[in-house]
Specification:
By secondary structure, the chain is an alpha/beta fold. 39% of the residues lie in helices and 17% in strands. The chain folds into 2 domains: 250 residues, Rossmann fold, CATH 3.40.50; 166 residues, 3-Layer(aba) Sandwich (Rossmann fold).
Length: 468
């Protein structure tokens, strides 16, 4: 394994000030989809809906008068339930992107605004929420969110309505089922599972691995690939525990893990589960913490806050690594993103440190997706998804002679000069395949005791496939 940027994991790096939930992913079985569809007739108004509007568009001359109705970006995601921390992160990204787009003049005479739709992390609630979104939202121009909790059930609905979507799902079926209006800037769960085992084996040289994953569908999708990767590279699986997210204690599971004498615990258990499990693991181990490797979902303000309270912030910082998606923190792209996030800080919600959002894939990559879509609308001279989606790929991947732009404002200026453009935002360049996937590169993250994030190394996805 060759690391792009190797460093002593205990040293201090020039890195982003924080990170947030990358994208917990939930695979929904076909039966659940069928039940969810039936639920439409029974729960027509299910799911909380709220409008969130970014600051009004302004120019140097003052408030810019809108020449058309606002275009709506819908955040279709969990705002309640186990994954309730995800929705507010996406909403913060939406507020930031629309604020910056409106400052730069909006899109074809329209300001952009954000509206939230709560899927509750359950397909039975997500399906009626998706239908409600289309029934109650004039001028809908883009959908973001659609995590793995609900992607399998709502993506077909969104696609049938010919609406472009940027989804934060890692479900593998989207690797080979083509939905023309589906776009994804995050990798499949399969590759993330490989990334965690890469960290354990190639980066930390652990040989005895314990798994402890939540009993939710999304967390369990990591288990099979992780076990396969463990066997592939010749490591020993000493425990595989499933954590009931509704439980209040995990002493039995912690004792079973300890009995296997692991060198590291690989985990994702959302809500309060990981905090309780890791606290009891530490207690049963005589107060000594076993090293932990988490999924990108554990790079989250809420996850850090709960676990740090349970085992101590310094203990967590000294014993924790996670895979995450690379965030380009150098140059104009990140500066623009950082400024946009800071401008809407007072409007954002959620637990934990606001600074962690600046490396959260759910914030970074949706911000990029919204900028791509807005620039594509301008290039296509249309806000209709069927008209602008091809330009989204062209602007993301670039064409020969394209000028690289790092912000929406730069892109608009270049388009006005008649230039072809390639947008490269804080999430880095895109490379869409025929299924509109652009997975990017993993990085290894750690926490500092204050909750900010330390970047240790990058892992190209091409190397992850070698592990598989």
């Amino acid at each position: 394994m060759t690391w792009n940027r190797a460093a002593d994991p205990g040293s201090d790096f020039a890195s982003p000030p924080g990170a947030g939930p990358s994208r917990p992913r939930r695979r929904i079985p076909a039966l659940a989809l069928g039940i969810a569809v039936i639920a439409i007739a029974l729960t027509a108004a299910s799911g909380a809906v709220a409008a969130r509007t970014s600051p009004a568009g302004r120019t140097a001359a003052g408030v810019r008068a809108a020449s058309g109705s606002p275009l709506v970006i819908a955040d279709l995601a969990p705002f309640t339930g186990v994954d309730a921390a995800l929705g507010p992160i996406y909403d913060a990204s939406c507020l930031a992107a629309t604020h910056q787009i409106n400052l730069a003049g909006g899109v074809l005479g329209h300001d952009l605004t954000c509206k939230t739709f709560d899927t509750r992390g359950d397909p039975a609630d997500a399906v009626p929420a998706a239908h409600q979104m289309f029934a109650t939202t004039p001028n809908l121009a883009l959908v973001i969110g659609c995590t793995s909790d609900e992607a399998a059930s709502v993506v077909p609905i969104i696609n049938a309505n010919k609406m472009v979507m940027f989804c934060m799902t890692g479900q593998s079926e989207f690797d080979h089922i083509h939905y023309p209006y589906f776009f994804r800037l995050v990798p499949p769960d399969l590759e993330e599972a490989y990334a965690m085992i890469d960290i354990a084996h190639f980066f930390k040289h652990f040989t005895r691995i314990a798994l402890a994953f939540g009993n939710d569908i999304g967390s369990q999708t990591f288990v099979g690939p992780a076990i396969a990767a463990i066997h592939k590279v010749g490591l020993k699986l000493v425990a595989n525990q499933t954590l009931d997210l509704s439980a209040t204690t995990f002493r039995t599971e912690a004792a079973t893990v300890l009995a296997g004498h692991p060198q590291v615990v690989v985990t994702e258990a959302l809500g309060s589960a990981d905090a309780t499990f890791l606290s009891e693991l530490k207690q049963l181990n005589g107060g000594k913490m076993i090293p932990v490797i988490g999924t990108s979902a554990t790079i989250s303000p809420a996850w850090f806050l709960s676990v740090a309270r349970a085992i101590g912030a310094k203990t967590l910082a000294n014993n924790f690594w996670a895979d995450n998606l690379v965030v380009n923190t150098a140059g104009a792209a990140f500066k623009g993103f950082e400024a946009a996030m800071a401008a809407v800080k007072s409007q954002t919600k959620g637990d934990g440190s606001f600074s962690t959002l600046l490396s959260a894939p759910g914030a970074v990559h949706l911000y990029d997706g919204m900028n791509l879509a807005a620039l594509a609308m301008i290039e296509a001279k249309s806000t209709t998804p069927s008209a602008y989606k091809a330009d989204l790929i062209k602007i993301g991947d670039g064409v020969p002679g394209a000028v690289v732009v790092n912000t929406f404002a730069e892109g608009v200026a270049a388009l006005k000069r008649g230039k072809a453009i390639r947008y490269v935002g804080p999430g880095g360049p895109t490379s869409f395949d025929s299924y509109h996937d652009s997975p990017g590169i993993f990085q290894i993250d750690r926490y500092r005791p204050n909750g900010s994030v330390l970047v240790a190394a990058d892992i190209p996805t091409s190397q992850l496939r070698a592990v598989s």
